[in-house]
Amino acid sequence: MVVEAVHDQDLALEELVRSGGIETYFAPVVDVYTLDKVGYQILQAPVGDPVLGHAESENLRRAMYDSALIGDIDASLRATALRTAEAAGLPKSNRLFLHSESESFVTLEDRAGEPDRSVILQLDASRVSSSPASVLRAVRQARSMGWGVGMSSIGADLRSTSFVPLVNPSVVGLHPDVLRIDCDSHLAELNRLLHAHLERTGAVILAEGVTTEDDLDRVRALGARFMTGPYFGSATKEPTPFSEPVEDGLVDHHSRNNPALGTPYSIAQGLRREPLVMNRELLVAQIAALEERALASGATTVTLGVFGEDETVSQATHDRYERIRDTVGLTAMFSGGFTESPVPGVRTGVVDASDPMRNEHGVVVVGPDWSGLVAASKRNDPGSDGQTVFDVFITTERYTCVDAARSVLTRIAPVGSTH
After folding, report:
1. In the chain, which end has fewer C-beta atoms inside a 10 angstrom radius, N or C?
2. pLDDT of 121-160, one tens digit each?
3. What is the reported pTM?
4. Strand duo 371-378 + 37-46: pairing
5. CA torsion 247→252→257→260, rounded to 10°?
6. DSSP state of 272
7. What are the two backbone dihedrals, phi and then psi, of residue 241, each rounded to the nearest 5 degrees?
């Protein structure tokens, strides 16, 4: 009966979207410095729905999240929005900011011939961590086809920044509640984390929900380049084309769109230096030191442990990962010997029999403002004293750590999976 009810809800939602029961609105996005219009944020809601929220009707988006048809429905909403923009006569230089679901990216058409990043697909930060492997694949595909990729709903919870360095959004959309936060220490931490990303990539911050003159002071204090909200006028179904901005705030953004391939050790070999040689005891201590550093970095960090073919972990490691689980944004442990995570609540995934990561031990830590990696490969031959020895790379080089994290995350099971 429950399955039938869910199926009926899916069909009703699909019918609503495909029958033209969704209206598309355009809210102006302006440049903080010039107050010139730089684009439109797309808002979509059922016909007659009086609530548009900060993007779509919350009820509509929530229903999509519960639907098995989320990819098809989001693709239909995107197609409707683009057709509506074209019918309104908006030129390609009038950038569109469109809240999107990665499940729909398989149906993206090629926009490589359009102006660079003329449409920014905004992924909700809270949904990236549920299935990071598929999200990161979808992001790479979208970029290769000429679409811009951003993130939205950032900052109300600092954990929402965890995946910023891995997704590498060109536009970081602040959650509207950020403009209402009274905690200066929260805002100071958010500023530090986001500006580390901006400095490295040339991305911009989009402040959503700007309503009053006072909001403008907060927007400037947070370093936002773009802003949108009722202060700049009501969203309209009949947007007005505008001249191309004199300066494009995204012109300096760059993204590395490399495939997530290999293992932490194979990626670290790209550092082009000789690895260190360690016995197991020193390696364990080296890994533990980085894991403790991850603990100190708090909720904005992703921590990924690699345990070769170990079937169990030591009590010290178990206890440390319990603390990491309760502290950082996302934690996962991987081994060819695990059928499930050895620490409840810590995620895992399949490391199959042919996976070269079965010969590796280490940990990858990535946060918005720092990163670290210990990657070790076990030697076949023992050392001079007969002990097992490892070739080891230790680095804080940003791109090496990010690429290693992406490679490990290709193995992670989605939330709700049996792994």
Report:
1. N
2. 999 998 898 899 999 999 999 999 999 999 999 999 999 9
3. 0.90
4. unpaired
5. -130
6. -
7. -60, 150
Contact 44, 60 (CB under 8 A): yes
User: Among all chains, which residue has been given the structure tokens 């011939």?
Assistant: 113
Q: 149, 254 in Cβ contact below 8 A?
A: no
Distance CA 230, CA 213 (A): 11
Kind and range of the H or E run holding 390 = strand 389-395
Rounded to an integer, what is the distance from CA 215 to the centroid of its chain? 26
Q: What is the DSSP letter of 213?
A: H
Q: What is the pLDDT of residue 298?
A: 86
Both tokens of residue 175? 């959650």
Residue 325 parent element (H or E):
helix 315-325
**Amino acid identity of 300?**
T
Residue 216 has pLDDT above 60, yes or no: yes
**DSSP structural state of residue 412:** B
Cα gap 388→50, rounded to integer Å = 67
308-335 pLDDT, tens digit per residue, is 999 999 999 999 999 999 999 999 999 9
Amino acid at 297: S
Q: Are 336 and 344 spatial neighbours (Cβ–Cβ below 8 Å)?
A: no
Q: Where are the beta strands (DSSP E) in 48-169?
A: 95-100, 119-124, 148-154
The pLDDT assigned to 5 comes to 44
3-state secondary structure of 48: coil
| Residue written as token pair 């990962």 | 321
